[in-house]
Amino acid sequence: MFYGIIICMYFVPGEHPPPHFHAYYGEYTATVDIRTCELIEGNLPRKQTKLVLAWAELHQQELMSDWSLVMSGKEPLNIQPLQ
Predict the structure, then answer these.
(1) Residue 56 belongs to what domain range?
(2) Is residue 70 situated within a structural domain?
(3) How many structural domains are present in the chain?
(4) Average pLDDT of 21-44?
(5) 16 to 6, 9, 43, 58, 83: CA distances (angstroms)
(6) Does 61 fall in a domain?
(7) Which of 2-6, 50-54, 73-77 has the least mean pLDDT?
């Protein structure tokens, strides 16, 4: 969580591709493709979208590692929030 934005990656074996995570901000929700660092579903306010995508770019390798963990049914590791 950072700046009121909650980031979630669900650890469920067989989670559907593409590799992604979910971002929540108030009543807004979005899904972000880890490979492209783009919104693929939903929406967030402009400022929060920029923050989430910047964070995703900074932590893309860690996010892909976490995706590998969730695909094998393991809990993802925590990733440093945007500061």
Answers:
(1) 34-75
(2) yes
(3) 1
(4) 97
(5) 20, 12, 20, 23, 30
(6) yes
(7) 73-77
Does the pLDDT at position 46 exceed 80? yes
Instruction: Tell me if the pTM is above 0.70.
Output: yes
Strand order, beta sheet including 28-33: 6-8, 20-25, 28-33, 38-43
Tokens read off for 79: 């990733």
The dihedral built from the CA positions of residue 45, 50, 52 and 53, taken in this order, carries a sign that is positive
In a domain, 11, yes or no: no
pLDDT of residue 3: 95
Give the tokens for residue 75: 């809990």
The pLDDT, as a whole number, for residue 13 is 63
Task: Please report which residue ranges of the chain form alpha helices under DSSP H.
Answer: 46-58, 60-71
